[in-house]
Amino acid sequence: MLPDTESPLADAASQPDTESASAEAASQPDAESALADAALAPRSVATTRPSKLRASLQLLTLRSVDGAALTGSAASIAVPTLLALALWTGFGWFNALPDAQFFPYALPYVTWYVLAALLCALALKLVSRPVISFAQACSLVALLTPVLVIAQFVIERFVPARWTDSAMAVVALYAAICCLRALHAITGSRQLIGTAAGIAVAVLAVWLGNVLYVVPTLWSSGDDVEEETVASDWNADEPILFEQAARIDESVAQLVRPPGEAPVGFFVGFAGFGDQKVFAEEIKFAADRFAQRYHTGQRTLLLINDRRSLEEQPLASATALSYALKGVASKMEVDRDILFLALSSHGSDEPLLSVTNGSLPMRQLSGELLAEALRDSGIKWKVIVISACHAGAFIEPLKDEHTILLTAAAGDRSSFGCADDRDLTYFGEAFYRDALPGATSLRDAFDKAKSLIAEREKEEGVEASLPQAYFGEQMVEQLAVMSKESG
């Protein structure tokens, strides 16, 4: 038999075909994988956002989460931040209805809470172990912000005052649990100290904001606004302050004292804090009530700080009050006539009344400055009503036998009702509105107001403000003489 010479040749000839087939077979799965990846790629991109949204909702509803919502990306910070800003603006508009007016000059106050949020994120980053990135901490703070804005709106609108502190505590607990779950998802370990640091910074920021009266309200009620909203410009501050003396002189010139020896009353009102309209409205209301009771209508001078207008009345400041009292004294028979002085503002136990009006530079009104202004005026007979927190602290520097002092709270207590959406504080409602018109005397009016306030505060479950009074006996007698002779 002949050797099979064709077999090797055939093998050799067929070898390339075999390798080609093998290469083709090997490449086929790769091509199929590439096609599959290409087909799936749009789907994975499309599902990225929903997965992050789902993770965010899981975190906010206190369910287990893998940290996908807290990547630290620009979107994870910007989107909830913009949502919180929109909610806050919308709620402010709703609270100012029916005649809401945009007030952009409160925007600088927003920076306080932006700074607070950044400090919370910084605390979470620095204290957490293992350390998280600052961007991730900002993502967590931003994610919680819309929920906190909604919670604040609900508490202010629907929760009774006696439950406000409890409701805020529940919100703080909720935020703490969210932080614990989020930090655990990011780091894989419990972060009790890191969470405590972040919550502590947030609570401190809120507390300081309340103490400093940081009120970032972009909407103001248009009730009784005759002038367009005016903001103080730094370049306009000096002329505005310079013209106050002339405006006070104009008001003093309009005071009319009737002829005769009988004592009459003069009213001076002082609304110190211009960023909340409640103080201006309360002083205007007090002026009307004293005019009805003690016939001071033609002898009334008002000093008003009100963000809605710089033109309606002379502005309130310690210097303006001293100047105004001297002007009023020039119209009085100071040995017989009685000054009714009503002041309304925020206060502290130094004693001190807050005096602000936009960017205008103003001194706070201390008990010493008020006593000095009254002393320099030469006015002898005085009835002084102070509606403010810690107002009772003013009694000691002001009391004498020729003075009656009525205050909305004890020196170590807060008073209530100074929200921007109100026209009167609790004390203003109880004393000026409810008690004074039908009272037999000023002492009777104060006692009735004190009782009304105590009942209201007990019902709302807040710490009693304990309004205080001092009645100089000679002043009580002089007031009785004026009331008798005026009919």
Descriptive key words:
single chain, 487 residues, alpha/beta, Rossmann fold, 2 domains, six-stranded mixed sheet, three-stranded antiparallel sheet, 11 strands, 56% helix
In short:
It is built from 15 helices and eleven strands. It is of the alpha/beta class and 487 residues long. It holds the Pfam family Peptidase_C13.
Secondary-structure map:
Blueprint: H1 6-60, H2 74-95, E1 100-102, H3 107-127, H4 134-158, H5 164-187, H6 192-211, E2 219-221, H7 237-242, H8 244-253, E3 265-271, H9 277-294, E4 300-304, H10 318-331, E5 338-344, E6 347-348, E7 352-353, E8 365-366, H11 367-377, E9 381-387, H12 395-398, E10 403-407, H13 426-435, H14 442-460, E11 468-471, H15 473-486
Parallel strand pairs: 3-4, 3-5, 5-9, 9-10
Antiparallel strand pairs: 1-2, 6-7, 7-8, 10-11
Helix pairs in contact: 2-4, 3-4, 3-6, 4-5, 5-6, 8-10, 10-11, 13-14
Protein name: C13 family peptidase
Keywords: Membrane, Transmembrane, Transmembrane helix
Pfam family, one: Peptidase_C13
